[in-house]
Amino acid sequence: MTRPGWRRIETEQAFRELFVDRLLAGDGLSFTIHADGRLSGTAGGRALSGTWWWEDGMFCRTGRIDGEDLDLDREVIEAHGLLMRYTRDEGRGRSAVVGPAA
User: Fold this and answer.
1) DSSP secondary structure string for all residues of 16-35
2) Residue range 55-76: average pLDDT?
3) pLDDT confidence of residue 102
4) 73: domain range?
5) Which domain of life is it from (predicted)?
6) 43 — pLDDT class (breaks 50, 70, 90)
7) What gap in Å lies between CA 96 and CA 43, rounded to an integer?
8) Following CA atoms 49, 51, 55, 57 in sequence, which dihedral angle do they give, to the nearest 10 degrees?
9) Distance CA 56, CA 26 (A)
10) 33 in a domain, yes or no?
11) What's the sign of the alpha-carbon dihedral 91, 66, 50, 5?
12) How many domains does the chain have?
């Protein structure tokens, strides 16, 4: 569900234009979603790595934090200016907001 001020990102092209190859930070995270399908950065000071793809209007990712596997997640992405809100579990889970790193 899209909330006031936020707009749902429904296409991979729109997602790429807004958020790919930019350093994003927030909620203890600092990461880059790379154009070649990789994820890299830190989560709580620990190394974050993984892969991503776009499917059925959602951002899909797998990953590892310091070698610990993260489950596959499909996330609803919303934008408000340069901020990105992602909601886990196909839009039914916890949301977090990240934005351009300073």
Assistant:
1) HHHHTTSEEEETTEEEEE-T
2) 96
3) 73
4) 7-100
5) Bacteria
6) very high
7) 13
8) 30
9) 26
10) yes
11) positive
12) 1
